[in-house]
């Protein structure tokens, strides 16, 4: 698949990066190369290959899914300009 200059311009806009008009042809070529690599990966037969989280076999340590406050309230509020009753105190905002 080949990317043209207009598509490269649109991708840059969607990514919110500024690309000079003179640099668009090079960007289009690079994006075309990336898509070429992706097409090569689609040709690889991965039937029967299990997904992995690391290149070395290891078991992930799981922890209990329990909601806690972390027991560090004092550390969190230590730098607060105004804290009351264990919470950040902010000025009232009225419209």
**Structure classification:** mainly alpha
- The helix content is 25-40%
Report, as a whole number of angstroms, the end-to-end distance: 55 Å
* Biggest sheet statistics: 2 strands, antiparallel
Q: Average pLDDT across residues?
A: 90
Query: Biggest sheet, strands in spatial order?
Result: 1-2
Low-confidence stretches: none
Shape: flat
Protein name: Aspartyl/glutamyl-tRNA(Asn/Gln) amidotransferase subunit C
EC number: 6.3.5.-
GO molecular function, one term: glutaminyl-tRNA synthase (glutamine-hydrolyzing) activity
Keywords: ATP-binding, Ligase, Nucleotide-binding, Plasmid, Protein biosynthesis, Transferase
Description:
The protein is mainly alpha-helical and 95 residues long. The protein has a domain at 5-42. 36% of the residues lie in helices and 4% in strands. It has helices at residues 5-14, 24-42, 73-77; strands at 83-84, 87-88. Strands 1-2 form a two-stranded antiparallel sheet. Helix 1 packs across helix 2 (24-42). The longest helix is centred in the middle third of the chain and has 19 residues, at 24-42. It is flat, with a radius of gyration of 26 Å. The termini are far apart. 1% of the residues are buried. The mean pLDDT is 90. Keywords: ATP-binding, Ligase, Nucleotide-binding, Plasmid, Protein biosynthesis, Transferase. It is an enzyme of class 6 (ligase). One of its GO terms (molecular function) is transferase activity. It catalyses: L-aspartyl-tRNA(Asn) + L-glutamine + ATP + H2O = L-asparaginyl-tRNA(Asn) + L-glutamate + ADP + phosphate + 2 H(+); L-glutamyl-tRNA(Gln) + L-glutamine + ATP + H2O = L-glutaminyl-tRNA(Gln) + L-glutamate + ADP + phosphate + H(+).
């Amino acid at each position: 698949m080949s990317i043209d200059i207009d598509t490269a311009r649109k991708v840059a806009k969607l990514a919110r990066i500024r690309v000079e008009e003179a640099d668009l042809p090079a960007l289009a070529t690079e994006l075309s190369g990336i898509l070429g690599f992706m097409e090569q990966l689609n040709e690889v037969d991965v039937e029967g290959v299990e997904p992995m989280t690391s290149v070395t076999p290891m078991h992930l340590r799981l922890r209990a899914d329990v909601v806690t406050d972390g027991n560090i309230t004092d550390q969190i509020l230590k730098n607060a300009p105004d804290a009351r009753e264990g919470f950040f105190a902010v000025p009232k905002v009225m419209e």
